[in-house]
Amino acid sequence: MHIRTLASWPFSLILIISLLCPLSAQAEDWLKLDISGVSGELDRNIKAHLGQLPNSNVQRRAFIFNAEDNTSAALHSLGYYHGKVEQKVLSPKKGAWTLSLIVTPGAPTLIEWVDIDLDGEILNDPIISDWLNGLSIKPGDTLNHGVYEQVKSQLVTLALARGYFDGKYIKSAITINRDLNTARITLHYDSGQRYRIGTVNFEGQTLNDDLMNGLVPFKTDSPYSTANLGALNRELLNTGYFSNIKVLPQVDKAVDLNVPIKVELSPRPSHSIELGLGVDIGNTTEKEFEPRVRVTWRTPQINRYGHSQETSLEWAPDKPKFLSTYTIPLTHPLNDQLKIRVGMLRDKYGVTQVFDPEDNTFRNTGELEGNKRLFGIIRQQKLESQWLFSYSVEAIREYYTQSEIDYDPTFVLFGSSISKTIRGDSSLDPKSGFFQHYSIEYADPSLGSTVRLARLQTKYKWIDTFFEKHRIVSRLDLGVNLAADEDLPFIPPSLRYFAGGDQSIRGYSYQELGPYFEYTSSDDKLIRQVIGGRYLMVGSLEYQYYLTPSWRVATFVDAGNAFDVDQIDPIISVGGGIHWITPIGPIKLDVGVGLKGTETDTVSRPWRIHLTMGSEL
């Protein structure tokens, strides 16, 4: 055991400071360097070849002795073969010496031709063809040995990634004509045959073989490529079954050009519990901060068939939620899943107001509250065209009080949806992308529902970035409920349409906007209540400007509303914000202002702060 006493610390600290900190100062005390006649890349390359300044008399003499040769080597590496170097040394008895290098580069050597000749199966590889087409080295360029070496290594690296393990250079040379200041580059590469992917062997997993084999995104005997192995790694990672994944090609064990793949896996812990604490800003009718607490329990692998479950319990003032989802892989662990969902939740909608005759205005007293219980079965499939398709049956029963009448309708909804997301890149803040979603749900009394209802919804979001710093984000949400007029009160709030909130119309609280009606309560008070509508049409256009790669400012216009045929009240809000782009997604602070008050507003021009986090696609 080593024990360090307190008394030893000051000496150690002084020793470290004296040895490490003054190095650059000591070097300058021995020799100062002055280079003239060159700039830019030539100047940087000469300094790199000369190396660090000396720290002793012996090092100084060696530095000066080799300076001319190192400078010439630096010129040659960038194609200057006729350069001249004049060296002067000023050596006073006291103080630092000065080494002056006066450099005359001369005429550069230009590339006369580039001959890249490929043999073997690599000739028919489209990835190699794309690489060749993208090469920047070309006749007329100034010769740069560094660029030449980079091209050589790129071809070898790319060939290995594509499975040409027997590839080699037949010839690689630069032929220089110093009289004409020209150079010819010759690269002849023979790839040989391309290896193929052999059997994939999994170690350390407890899932059945059919499920694991379904995760392999390529066929045995497919052409070898690291891209295929990367796709396998992503598939395994996305399942959530494993905490550690290693995909190891065993090239040394290849038989008949087939490379066996060894996959080492470590299962995730059987259970995990996640605690989340947060606050909603701008989503309450009174502009209050609304705290949230969420506990999530996950079991990533219940049995050898890959079943999993996720149960979350969330608390917010008057909005508790419980939701549990049991997932069963079907024909593919990721692309075909059956989900069984059970939940109980309470939510608030619209706004309820009481008329105050003294002020001759309405004041907020609460919201329309719905308590819902649900049970659903959903099959979700990812098609080869990358569309996400699902069909479901969901039974819900919701309790709510509207105009002092209690309702508890039951609905059995048969639904189907299809959606697709296209991203310009894989980041959480993509520079471009397009999202589209379409869904239909149907309920009928003959199938167990209180009333007949057909729901149709579509959503779009489009993102694009122009000239690197200018980003446009637009969205459009449309919805319609088809039902008889007399059945409308029996459609629960969770199935009606409301507007307002950071994903709808900013400047208003979550689900605050929509059609309303007025009635006289049992105690003779005039009540106005937003109850939601049959239709929804909400759109937004936002312009964002990047101040830096991590910060941007934004300005937006949101418009639309939820409405009925006889009550259409379009709302427009404007605003701006500042966004911080973090590794976990953008954090956005926006302020929205309504251009006019609605019938249910207690102020003439409402405004609201919205704080959100997460990807926009």
TrEMBL record:
How far does the signal peptide extend, from start to end residue?
1-27
Instruction: Describe the location of the POTRA domain by residue ranges.
Output: 122-190, 195-261
**Record's Gene Ontology CC terms?**
cell outer membrane; TAM protein secretion complex
Provide the GO biological process annotations.
protein secretion
| Alphabetical keyword list | Cell outer membrane, Membrane, Signal, Transmembrane, Transmembrane beta strand
Q: Where in the cell is it found?
A: Cell outer membrane
**What Gene3D superfamilies does the annotation carry?**
membrane protein fhac, membrane protein fhac: a member of the omp85/tpsb transporter family
What sequence ranges are listed for the domain Bacterial surface antigen (D15)?
A: 425-614
Please report which protein family the annotation says this sequence is part of.
Belongs to the TamA family.
UniProt protein name: Translocation and assembly module subunit TamA
Q: What is the lineage of its organism?
A: Bacteria, Pseudomonadati, Pseudomonadota, Gammaproteobacteria, Alteromonadales
